[in-house]
């Protein structure tokens, strides 16, 4: 039986993985959060791995506040860069396959066609830069890894765009949503299943992969779909803007090409609207 460590257990992807594991009784899971394992602390990681062994480590722990990362770059790097390095070192020492989640924000958004794994990176925010450093640390430290970049992640859990929009609808807010960025909303439940399928495949096709749902949207498109599917469109006044000022720069285009992960592991990507509709229906 494969033993799998999942970090970041209280984050949205960690919680989605907890739900998904019910379909994988052949695996044994240990879910830990920062209170059990602080990945920004090398001593904490080394001590943790000294007392337990794992076949896989799924690292979902991350500093994800894109805005605050501009003024808290040390905190972002502590988890996203140094934490990834410490985990990779421990995995290398203990022969544990590392599955690490990264982001579309490693790109600058100037390409205009879906990003391949081989495209040049050029993050334009502290958050994106910290995640890219984490990728590099893993690649330099331990060959047995899967780095999975994803985009615009949302779920029924935690602080994310979906839950914020649903809350604003209940409050009857007037909303102005940007059309400036183009990307792909991705259901964290779909990503969780993809990660578990990669483990189930027992593949050693290690390396860098892109995962997202299919299709493209602006944040306005995403918001409009949320309100329409949830039946809350009448409760909000929704307006577009072609510019929404933020502290952190964001790529205006960050659609990911997912052909590699689909072909390598036989994964079928769901359309983002279809996936969103099912999630809202299941958790209404």
List keywords for this structure.
Rossmann fold; 9 helices; alpha/beta; single chain; 16% strand; globular; 284 residues; 39% helix
What's the SSE blueprint?
Blueprint: E1 2-7, H1 12-20, E2 27-31, H2 42-51, E3 56-59, H3 73-94, E4 97-103, H4 126-141, E5 145-150, E6 153-154, H5 161-170, E7 174-178, E8 186-187, H6 188-201, E9 207-210, H7 219-230, E10 237-241, H8 259-265, H9 272-283
Helix pairs in contact: 1-6, 2-3, 3-4, 5-7, 7-9
Q: Could you spell the SSE succession in H and E letters?
A: EHEHEHEHEEHEEHEHEHH
Q: Report strand %.
A: 15-25%
Radius of gyration: 18 Å
Strand pairing plus helix content: what structural class? Answer: alpha/beta
Q: In this structure, how is the largest beta sheet organized?
A: 6 strands, parallel
What is the class of one domain in the CATH system? Alpha Beta
Q: What's the β-strand tally? A: 10
First-last Cα distance: 36 Å
């Amino acid at each position: 039986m494969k033993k799998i460590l999942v970090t970041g257990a209280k984050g949205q992807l960690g919680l989605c993985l907890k739900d998904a594991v019910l379909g994988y009784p052949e695996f044994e899971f240990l879910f830990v959060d920062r209170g059990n394992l602080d990945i920004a602390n090398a001593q904490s990681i080394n001590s943790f791995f000294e007392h337990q062994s794992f076949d896989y480590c799924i690292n979902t722990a991350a500093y994800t506040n894109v805005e605050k990362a501009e003024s808290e770059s040390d905190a972002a790097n502590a988890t996203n860069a140094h934490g990834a390095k410490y985990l990779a070192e421990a995995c290398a020492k203990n022969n544990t396959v590392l599955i690490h989640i990264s982001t579309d924000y490693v790109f600058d958004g100037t390409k205009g066609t879906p990003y391949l794994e081989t495209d040049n990176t050029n993050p334009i925010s502290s958050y994106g830069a910290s995640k890219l450093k984490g990728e590099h640390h893993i690649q330099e430290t331990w060959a047995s890894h899967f780095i999975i970049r994803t985009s615009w992640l949302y779920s029924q859990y935690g602080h994310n765009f979906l839950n914020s929009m649903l809350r604003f609808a209940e409050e009857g807010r007037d909303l102005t949503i940007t059309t400036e960025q183009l990307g792909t909303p991705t259901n964290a439940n779909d990503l969780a299943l993809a990660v578990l399928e990669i483990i189930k495949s027992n593949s050693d096709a290690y390396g860098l992969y892109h995962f997202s749902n299919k299709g493209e949207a602006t944040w306005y498109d995403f918001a409009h779909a949320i309100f329409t599917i949830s039946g809350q469109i009448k409760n909000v006044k929704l307006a577009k803007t072609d510019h929404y000022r933020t502290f952190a720069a964001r790529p205006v285009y960050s659609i990911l090409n997912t052909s590699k992960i689909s072909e390598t592991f036989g994964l079928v990507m769901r359309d983002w609207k279809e996936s969103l509709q099912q999630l809202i229906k299941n958790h209404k």
